Amino acid sequence: MSRSSVLITPSILSADLGHLQDEIESVKDHADWLQIDVMDGHFVPNLSFGAPVVKCLKTRLPIDVHLMVSNPSDRIGEFQKLHVKHITFHAEAVQDSKARRALLQAIRKSGATAGIALNPETPLTKIEDSFDDIDLLLVMSVHPGFGGQGFIAEVLAKVSEAHAKRPGLMIQMDGGVDQETAVACRSAGATNLVAGNFIFSAKDRAKAISQLRG
After folding, report:
1. What is the rounded distance in angstroms from the CA atom of residue 183 to the CA atom of residue 188?
2. How far is it, in rounded angstroms, from Cα 160 to Cα 163?
3. Which fold has domain 3-213?
4. 37 is catalytic
5. Which of its termini does the chain have fewer beta carbons within 10 Å around, N or C?
């Protein structure tokens, strides 16, 4: 698969935060996007980055913000002036269909493309009312909140289902993505692979990213 057909998005959650800028420099010429995981300690038990970290990053890579928060509508404003590429929120955090559509619109007004994430146990039918309105579907292949978890292969059926319904939709997968699981992800129809531990634990980041591309 060519570089143009699958995007590789390193997640800085697994980077050495004490040398974050150096870590970003190590992937800038090889990756396509850079993911920032925003955790609130409520939707997921962990806490992580926010807009101040994004503001301090020096990179030409498009920033992909993954909101793992209970109140995503209250957090969009933080990123409005930061020119992020993409913002994803969780379907589990926004249950009402009208509220989801309004949030998708608000994200686009901020200048970013908009996506919805599904936890491993959440079926695609959960967002059938807004499936045609999203720019990206994020299928979690681990339970959100912590890096280094094992890949949940059962979610691949969800990816295949989404790809069949909207062949042109960008489908992102996040969690336990490595050289082996990336093959299954790409085969199922994923077009954007998020990897943290596999990339940032590798001595040769360029090689790791190339392996994910296949």
Report:
1. 9
2. 5
3. TIM Barrel (3.20.20)
4. yes
5. N
143 contacts: CB under 8 Å, gap ≥ 6: 119, 120, 149, 175
Structure tokens at 193: 């692979």
- Structural domain spans, the chain: 3-213
What distance in Å separates the CA atoms of residue 143 and residue 199, rounded to the nearest whole number?
19
Catalytic, out of 32, 64, 174, 178:
174
- pTM of the model as a whole: 0.94
Would you call 132 a catalytic residue per the annotation?
A: no
The overall average pLDDT reported for the chain is 93
Residue from 186, 189, 146, 182 nearest 164 by CA? 189
CB 130 within 8 A of CB 100: yes
Helix count and strand count (H, E) for the chain: 8, 8
- Neighbour-count burial of 58, counting CB atoms closer than 10 A to its CB (0-12 exposed, 13-18 middle, 19+ buried): exposed
